[in-house]
Amino acid sequence: MKNGQRIYSGIKGFLFILVNKEFLIFLFFLAVSCCFWFLSALNDFYEREFPVEVKLTEVPENVIITEGLPDTVRVTVRDKGYSFLQIMLDGGIKPLHLTFRLYADNKGKGMVSSTEIQKILRPRLSETATITSVKAEHWDFFFNHGKKKKVPIILDSCINTKSNYYVTRCSLTPDSAVVFAMDEALDTIRMVHTEHVQFDNVSGALSSEVKLQRIRGAKVYPATTKVSIITDQLTEVSLHVPVKTINVPENAVLKTFPAVTEIKVAVGIKSSGLVKAELFSIVADYNDISTSSQKVPLKVQSQPKGIVKVTLTHPTVDYLIEK
Q: What is the pLDDT of residue 18?
């Protein structure tokens, strides 16, 4: 019995070694095949787009860049795979450092062409590489020597309040911005608008930071402003106000019936306690009397600030003229 177990164990061990040996040989040839395939693939030509960082250097201390170059330009290169592998191992194509004085003119503007970008990039690539395209034909930048102007900020917005609410105050902090640009541009800039924003279902108070619109060739500081919106809930207050007469000739007396009229005032709850009848002026104008009607129309001549709407319960009243 023991001899049988030994024979079984010996055969099992031999087969295990044989199978593992064949498997190792298979893995070896598989690895060799992958290496040949990989080397063959690296020798083929491919096209790939690379983002290349751009930096404007040696800018004089008295120069303010009002609109700079893009942070990156996108360049498409055709080359062999092993060249792309080397670029990726190096962390990409190294940044382009463009000297300010080589591209700036005397009128506050500079320009870098795609041809110039290719000229600088070419020595950084392999001999087999070809630059097939550069996104955009040229890039402009603008600058000045500290000339500036302070202009108001205009909010471009759509504010929708919650039902039965209204906006009592809307303010910007700051409410003005400083614009840096050349004289010609500054002469045409009267204000700076925010980017369009929309606020829905607003109730209570709301604050939000909003970006300012960019102006071509100019630098706007700050780049954002804070919009603060305060709302109040509407309520209705009824008041009885005496009717006054105006434009009545010296030899006549205009009397209205009734002499006191009711008005309904839509106002915020926070301000409703301050609404008094004596703060309103309701008038009957002698010049509005028509021979075709036995009534004279009433109108609101004055009202306090903060009132949303005033509604006359009786838009017209009876009248009598005494001479």
A: 46
d(CA 106, CA 145): 11
* Closest residue by Cα to residue 63 from 104, 95, 111, 113: 104
Task: Give CATH for domain 148-233.
Answer: 2.170.120.40
pLDDT level of residue 32 (50, 70, 90 thresholds):
low
Rounded CA-CA distance 67/109 in Å is: 9
The pTM (predicted TM-score) of the whole model is: 0.68
- Under CATH, which number does the domain 234-322 receive? 2.170.120.30
CATH number 2.170.120.30 given to 46-144: yes
